[in-house]
Amino acid sequence: MRTSNPIFSRLGGANRDAGPAGAYPREPLGTAVGGGLTGSYGTNPYAPAAKTDTDTDTGAWAGRSAVTMDDVIVRTATTLGTVALAAVLSWLLLPVDEANLGRSYGIAVGAALVAFVLSLIQSFKRTPTPALILGYAAFEGVFLGVFSSTVSTYISPGVIVQAVLGTFAVSAGVLIAYRMRWIRVNQRFAGFVAAAATGFLLLLLADLLFSAFGAGDGLGFNSGGLGIVFGVVGILLGAAFLALDLKQVEDAVAYGAPREEAWLAAFGLTLTLVWLYLEVLRVLTIFNSDN
Predict the structure, then answer these.
(1) Which runs of consecutive H residues, i.e. helices, occur in 151-186?
(2) Longest Cα pair distance anywhere in the chain, in angstroms?
(3) I want to staple 31 with a disulfide (CB 3.0 to 4.6 A). Which of 38, 131, 138, 229 is the partner?
(4) Where are the beta strands (DSSP E) in 165-282?
(5) CB 281, CB 151: distance < 8 Å
(6) How many other CB atoms are found less than 10 A from the CB of residue 165?
């Protein structure tokens, strides 16, 4: 199984030719059935190839430690902290009042483009680059800070605190449901989420195209009851992505993935949480505006 998150789809793809230190093979979560594995991979993608008589422990595998959950938590906190710090600073230093509106918008759009490019570069790299990941987080934070300030100033005052709390609530709910095994994350679940996400993004693209070519409110996904429904679907998809990401992290730890892949985990989780925040913000903004 592979998650729909483009970053987590690479977890396990990097460094497969060079196994990390640790015991192999490892079974994820004790899910061996009939001698086979039923985790995300089916077989251990990090297991080293069989050694020959000439191989030694000082070769390509030497010095490579396995990722732990603490590694993922620390790097995720660092990445999300960078997003939050950049967002707060951009909110304070790039005001969206009438005198500075154009400049702030220009910087926000530029930051969003840079963040997108950095995310693409990292997505196609075989190994994680912390500088790219933290750079993405910083520029994403600048965009989110100006965007959030604009929404709070001109559309729905006070909605940002609600959106942040809503994002935490959804994330905590997914984490609890995942740990209690109320969510069954398997191949069928991943396929359904991938199909739903594809349809969601196509509808979003169609809405943007209709808006760009003079259809007013596009397909109506940004206001009214339809907008709220569309936003709720986006939140549910974000929650599903988060469950897939948690499964991928858990399996990577169980299989003994290389420690540096904790940065990929942090990157993928950050992408998912940003998605969740924007969709929660969409729903709350529409709801507050209608009332």
Answers:
(1) 159-179
(2) 74
(3) 38
(4) none
(5) yes
(6) 12
